[in-house]
Amino acid sequence: KNQKNKKQNEEKILPRVIAGETYYTLKEISDKHQVSETTLRKYVKSGQLIGKRFGRNILVSEKSLNKYLSE
């Protein structure tokens, strides 16, 4: 059952490519890395994680996410 949920979560991750840069929603990052969306929003607000608002969503570039995860 756990693997089924994990597989469903992986299928939900649909990166967006904007101007050659890959972006993920906070929900997608939350599901993949087991971090709450609230925590991610705090990281964006504090500048620890760089996010851009596109409509109602905050999107984080793959480059920015990798940089944060490597710190």
Stretches where pLDDT is under 50 for at least 5 consecutive residues are none
What is the chain-wise order of helices and strands?
A: HEEHHEEH
Structure summary, number of beta strands? 4
Give the % helix.
40-55%
Q: Using only CA atoms, what is the Rg?
A: 12 Å
Strand content: 15-25%
User: What spatial form do the alpha-carbon principal axes imply?
Assistant: globular
Alpha-beta content class: alpha+beta
Distance between the termini: 33 Å
Number of H- or I-type helical stretches: 4
How would a textbook summarize the main sheet? Answer: 4 strands, antiparallel
Identify the strand order in the major beta sheet.
1-2-4-3
Mean pLDDT: 84
Which SSEs are present, and which pair or pack?
Layout: H1 2-12, E1 16-18, E2 21-25, H2 26-33, H3 37-46, E3 51-54, E4 57-61, H4 62-70
Antiparallel strand pairs: 1-2, 2-4, 3-4
What attributes characterize this protein structure?
single chain, 71 residues, alpha+beta, four-stranded antiparallel β-sheet, 24% strand, globular
Give a written overview of the molecule.
With 71 residues, the chain is an alpha+beta fold. It is 54% helix and 24% strand. The protein has four helices and four strands; from the N terminus they run H-E-E-H-H-E-E-H. The protein has helices spanning 2-12, 26-33, 37-46, 62-70, and strands at 16-18, 21-25, 51-54, 57-61. Strands 1-2-4-3 form a four-stranded antiparallel β-sheet. Strand 3 and strand 4 form a beta hairpin. The termini are far apart. The relative contact order is 0.17. The mean pLDDT is 84.
